Amino acid sequence: MPARPVSRARHLLVVLLATVGLVAAGSPALAEPGRAPAEHDTNGHGRTYLALGDSVPFGFRGSQPPEVYADPANFVGYPELVADDLGLRVLNASCPGETTESFIDATAQSNGCQNSLGSDVGHRDFFPLHVDYEGSQLDYAVEVLQQEPRVRVVTLQLGANDGFLCVRTGACSTPEGFRALAARVGQNVDRILATLREEACYSGRLAVVTYYALDYTDPAATQLLNAALAAAAARNGAVVADGFAAFAPRALAAGGSSIAAGLVPPADVHPTEEGQRLLAGAVEQAVGH
């Protein structure tokens, strides 16, 4: 996207970060345009792990000091933990606020990645991702898989931002509306996985990571979304890394709350370091050690 005037950009960024779902509130400083992102892949083993998705695999945390957002190396998600554990070079292409639709088409509605409701600016206008690419995340993934023969693991976690947008627009105000949302997410994830398998000709280990619940005493919406993700995974020869089950014992021991269990910070939806470690364990169990 072309750069915008800084004065307008600062105002829109504050609005953006105050309203998006999986991009928590804050007012970070603007990143220097064109800055190359830092890399976490220092193992040098030659085998690559491609991580795809939204702010959860990105490792996003809200309410950080402004300078933190300028350096993606400050955000460590489960992909970096998995890569360290399994001796893999990681390419973490995830983007905070990505939806299943914006993952496919960079001009589609996101929840803070390329744009937000009521705004044409997003995270990518101001801050670097873990890896630098133009266009959609899907296009980047296909390019990597076609050009990099040593990709050994691919993970995908998407769909929560579709849900947040659905709630904010009122389309999920009824059970029927949320079921329609889950079906649409499933169709989009099915398309994404099929593209990775067929167009990118990737036949290796592919895992879809499901979402944890914030409240395990009322997890119906999360389970409906996760069921759609799992069905898409099954149709495309992918395994499921069960993020829902990873959080459940700790959350239930704390009265059902992932926040009370220390797995999600108060007033946030993103995992803590402990939560990211549990998700990493789920991925490693799914793809094998």
Estimated share of beta-strand residues: 5-15%
**Largest sheet: spatial strand order:** 2-1-3-4-5
Number of strands: 5
What best-fitting shape do the alpha-carbon axes yield?
globular
| Class based on secondary structure composition and strand pairing | alpha/beta
Percent of residues in helical segments? 40-55%
Estimated radius of gyration: 18 Å
Compute the number of helices: 11
Low-confidence stretches: 1-44
The end-to-end distance, rounded to whole angstroms, is 39 Å
The main sheet comes to: 5 strands, parallel
H-E string? HEHHEHHHEHHEHEHH
What does this structure look like?
With 289 residues, the chain is an alpha/beta fold. Helix content is 43%, strand content 9%. The protein is built from 11 helices and 5 strands, in the order H-E-H-H-E-H-H-H-E-H-H-E-H-E-H-H. The chain starts with 5 loop residues before the first helix and ends with a helix. The relative contact order is 0.14.
